[in-house]
Amino acid sequence: MNWYTSVLFLIGCASLVELWQKLQLHPWSPLLIMFLFSLILSFFPIRLPRGKAIGNEYSTGNVGFIFLLLYFGIGASLAALWADTLILNIRHAHSKSQKISWFRLFSTMGMYNVCALADAALIKNFPHLPLWLMSALLLFIFDALNLLMLLGVRDSVGEKVSMQTYLNSWQFMIYPMFICAVVLTTILKPYHDPLHLILDCIYSFLILFSIIYLTRQHAKATTMYQTIASKQQIITDHTRDLITIVDPKRDVTYASPSHLTLLGRSPKHIEGQSLDGVIHKDDVAQVKSAIHSALYNHAEFTLPVRFVHEDGRPILTEIKGSSVTGEDGDVRHVVMVARDLSERVEVDEMLRRSDRLAVVGQLAAGVAHEIRNPLTSVKGFLKIIAKNPADLARFLPILWAEFNQIETVINEFLVWSKPQFGQYMNEDIVSLVGNAVAMLEPHAKFCNVEIRILPTEYIPPVYCNANHIKQVFVNVLKNAIESMPHGGLVDIDIELEEKCVIVRITDEGCGIDEENLKRIGDPFFTTKSDGTGLGMVVSFKIISDHGGTIRLTSDGVQGTTVEIRLPLETSQQIQLVETSAL
Ligand code: ADP
Ligand code: MG
Prior knowledge:
Helix 1 packs across helix 4 (about 100-125). This protein folds into 4 domains: about 5-230, Arp2/3 complex 21 kDa subunit ARPC3; about 240-340, PAS domain (Beta-Lactamase), CATH 3.30.450; about 345-420, Helix Hairpins; about 420-580, 2-Layer Sandwich (Heat Shock Protein 90), CATH 3.30.565. The longest helix has about 45 residues, at about 340-385. By secondary structure, it is of the alpha+beta class. The chain is built from 17 helices and 14 strands. Strand 3 and strand 4 form a beta hairpin. It has helices at about 5-25, 30-40, 60-95, 100-125, 130-155, 165-185, 195-240, 260-265, 265-270, 285-295, 340-385, 390-415, 430-445, 465-480, 515-520, 535-545, 570-580, and strands spanning about 45, 55-60, 240-245, 250-255, 300-310, 315-325, 330-340, 425, 450-455, 460-465, 490-495, 500-505, 550-555, 560-565. The protein binds adenosine-5'-diphosphate and magnesium ion. The site of adenosine-5'-diphosphate (ADP) has 21 residues, from helix 14 and helix 16.
């Protein structure tokens, strides 16, 4: 309660007196019909879209109030307004389980009284205005004043309101007001014959009701759309993935805000431009062809693609794209979601490195053993030569051979422990297997294990990263050796099948039971006290990067076969991931 609402309250009280004086002058039956008509309409407000406006409903009951005012005078109109406000207040109090606020009721009526008085003044001073203009003006004045006073009430209780709020509210109200004015002038006539009036009311009600229905559906749809749009907004605003929509000309029509964080480029600068500008020049061609097939064959695609950061850095991503068709079946857009792979590639690389280090550590014993033998013999010969230098010539070839042996072992070891910036090239798988075996030979001998490479037909070169593939063979062979603590035999069978090379490594070790077989490839799964549980994880990853597969079979009692399949035709994609990851 404040001075503003108190004044409205007093005006509301005065309206009761006015009502009593004026009502007695009129014929009752048409007045009652219109009275009821207004009340019924009040229950069916037109729903306006939720905006930055006051309220989101427009009461069609206003048609009735204005009609009463126009033909039966202010008393009739006030009576209907009173009844309407009372009912609304009772409903409001009921739905919130509160008592009716009489103060509120009277101050609301105060507002209506001011509006109705202004309208009455218009009728009195300009009695000859054409009906259409008069009814339109009455409605406009009524609503404009009502809205203004409502803002006043809000302002008086400390709510922030601005002229903009007022204008927004108006903007929403103009359209339903216009419809009400049309109904008022074209349908409702001041009959004194109740039947005619009832029919008119029904027509008006039907027209208004269809509009009410439409506006409600519209408001519902708008709200639903806004909810969905705001959810989508949340997703696109907060995702780290790059979401891009391109049109058939490959111009970007939408770029998510993540472009700023990931690429340092503002979406505003990307939208409207060709996508080619943000993609690494070597990848443009394949993106073009993928978008082309999405557009014309509705094909979905997944591609490793490098975007270019504002500072020139390439950012490796995986793009998933699909086409969006319109109702006519034509492709309108291609939506692409690109995920930053740099982190994943780093983790993969870290895994590889740590596994490599583990291998280095475990191999050290074998290597030391292998070096010690030639060293001992070199030392022995040197002792002899020291006593009798003439023997040097005789022992030189042996010394030479022993040094060569040491050098080979050390070289292999060094190659292994160095960071491996491998490249994809056509490689001979048989010699890669040979290298891996040579490398493990000392370790195998130490463990009393014999490794045999079975004779094989001609195997065409495989497009692969030699160091990585060698690492897989070493990992698998090491597992085979470790499965036979008392020694045994490892057979390597290399075979050519249609479009792929198969390397089968079979041991006679402890085997793997069914339960553990499922877990191989899980990071850190190991059954060894000094195991890392990374060897197979890394091997799986490397082989799948090459488009191949690894399969382990074992009866769980004795022996395991690891089958590695590598495709002969390796797609360009693999090379791309690999080169950009390094
Ligand atoms: P690690 O060798 O460090 O344990 P791996 O990933 O290389 O890790 O191997 C995981 C597990 O798979 C091993 O601990 C072992 O139980 C099992 N495994 C792999 N290869 C063989 C094999 N040839 N024979 C028996 N078990 C094997
Ligand atoms: Mg291992």
